[in-house]
Amino acid sequence: MLSLSIASPSTITFPPKTHFPIPKSTFNGIKIQKHHCPIHVPPQAASFRNASASSVVMMAKREEELKEIRAKTTEEINEEVVDLKGELLMLRLQKSARNEFKSSEFGRMRKRIARMLTVKREREVEEGINKRLSRKLDRQWKKSIVVRPPPSLKKLQEEEAAAAEAEKSA
């Protein structure tokens, strides 16, 4: 058998809290006096209102892009994601070959891909597809992708073919 006894509150004692002294530092910070070092305000601070206006324009563009993506079907989104990933690969190849390219394109393409995949996932959530099944479907979709050249490479090949044909006819 198990017996349990409860002590009265008057019999319970706690050890006193010990306060350790906090060592005092001799460093009191840096004091800057106005009359010794004048502060120069750059003229860019005056254009702070313009920065907020440009961010509003950027947000409007982003919202417009999201509306455009949401108007597409899931299959169209998948096709565009494949194309954009191919374009990203072409950019990486240009970078490794030290060709001229816009470095801002990396971020722009990655963000566009992320937005498309986000819209795709939103649709899956609406359909009631859980995370685990979504990943399984994603793996199946990735395995089913047929490797094809990205649109920029197709365009480049067409231009080269047209130039070669122009040389033959000339």
UniProtKB/TrEMBL annotation:
Concerning Pfam families, the annotation shows: Ribosomal_L29
The protein's GO terms of the molecular function aspect are: structural constituent of ribosome
| Entry keywords, A to Z | Chloroplast, Plastid, Ribonucleoprotein, Ribosomal protein, Transit peptide
InterPro entries per the UniProt record, alphabetical: Ribosomal_protein_uL29, Ribosomal_uL29, Ribosomal_uL29_sf
Gene3D superfamilies for the chain: 1.10.287.310
The record's subcellular locations are:
Plastid, Chloroplast
Q: Name one GO biological process term.
A: translation
> Where does it sit, as one GO cellular component term?
ribosome
NCBIfam families noted in UniProt: L29 (TIGR00012)
What interactions and quaternary structure are annotated?
Part of the 50S ribosomal subunit.
Q: Which family does it belong to?
A: Belongs to the universal ribosomal protein uL29 family.
**Record's protein name:** Large ribosomal subunit protein uL29c
Upper classification of the source organism reads: Eukaryota, Viridiplantae, Streptophyta, Embryophyta, Tracheophyta
